[in-house]
Amino acid sequence: MERYDAERMELSTRDRVALAAYTEIKEGRGTPNGGVWLDVSHLPREVIMERLPRVYQTLLDVQMLDITRDPIEIAPTAHYSMGGVWVRPEDHGTDVDGLYAIGEAASGLHGANRLGGNSLIELLVFGRIVSEAAANYSNHLETQSRSLAAVAEARSEVDSLLSFQGPENVRALQRAVRDTMTEHAGVVRSEAGLLTGLTELSAIEDRLENLGIHPDIAGYQDLAHAFDLKSSLLAASATLEAALERRESRGCHNRSDFPEQDESLQVNLVWSPGRLEREAIPPHPRRNSRADARGIDGGQTRRVAAFIRVGAQVNRTPGFNPGKVCAIGVTVAVSPTLCD
């Protein structure tokens, strides 16, 4: 880590550590399996067992690896979605009345790079805000109406998928999407790679016509995977197109062909199929707080939209602007190379 963050070293932010690992691997200094070594064996055993108990137990169970003595082979992987369905900032409501989104399904809260621990805080804060907003909305309705058209559309889609008897395996296509996104929308992006990714996604979408859905005695797992695949393709398209539009490097979004920030791109990118818009971000009003006293972001907190992975699943609701998401980047962490 001396090459990448000499001051903080291994205590640097996750995106910097991931970028360091990615660079070492790409420049040929990685392991034969395409990873790098993480060694914590210099720490006292008591510290490791106190600070990393789950990592210790998981690697012992899965790889018979004792991290108090041996190094861990790691590689960058997608970790957290910073962005998602467009929501109103005051209550996280969407374009559909009564539909709310929080956590990784929602957009904008973490800016260009989520800080460690903030995902749980987000759920605690907005979980309460959204629950109160949803309850208030419901309590003021005279009737709880159900859209027969929405139910019919959902049933029709399920029936359509169950009729697919082609040779393509849904899990193989899910793997193809993951491989494409890892290769072309990972730690470092470029215009050539993003365009290649979009071409590969288009080819995967063409293969959907030959999909085979085969329920068995174990249940409807193929059907569930098919819905996940369709949503993943939507989210992947949003990610690639927004990353292509953001010709700069900001937070965890690294463009090798545009390594500097572009202040004109301090905006939210709002994506719908066939359309990508720039949404201006008003400056946050100054408040008398510890954050301002310490001068974080010059006393102003700005919201920059980021990556979308799972949030696109809610866009199927009739009346919603389909696929309307804010998207650009992805927080990355390190995981054992054995894991997906």
Fill in the keyword field for this structure.
3-stranded antiparallel β-sheet, 9 helices, FAD/NAD-bd_sf, Succ_DH/fumarate_Rdtase_cat_sf, flavoprotein, alpha/beta, globular, Methane Monooxygenase Hydroxylase, Chain G, domain 1, 340 residues, disordered C terminus, Flavocytochrome C3, Chain A, domain 1
Number of strands: 10
Strand portion = 5-15%
Given helix and strand content, the structural type is: alpha/beta
**Distance separating the two termini:** 24 Å
The strand line-up of the biggest sheet is: 1-2-10
Major pleated sheet: 3 strands, antiparallel
The string of secondary-structure elements, in order, is HEHHEHHEHEHEHEEEHEE
Helical segment count = 9
What is the CA-based Rg, rounded? Answer: 22 Å
Contiguous runs where pLDDT drops below 50 for at least 5 residues = 288-340
What percent of the residues sit in helical stretches (DSSP H or I)? 25-40%
- According to CATH, the homologous superfamily of the largest domain is Fumarate reductase/succinate dehydrogenase flavoprotein-like, C-terminal domain
Give me the CATH architecture of the largest domain, please. Answer: Up-down Bundle
Tell me, what's the shape?
globular
CATH topology of the largest domain: Methane Monooxygenase Hydroxylase, Chain G, domain 1
- How many discrete structural domains? 2
How much is the average pLDDT?
81
The CATH class of the largest domain is Mainly Alpha
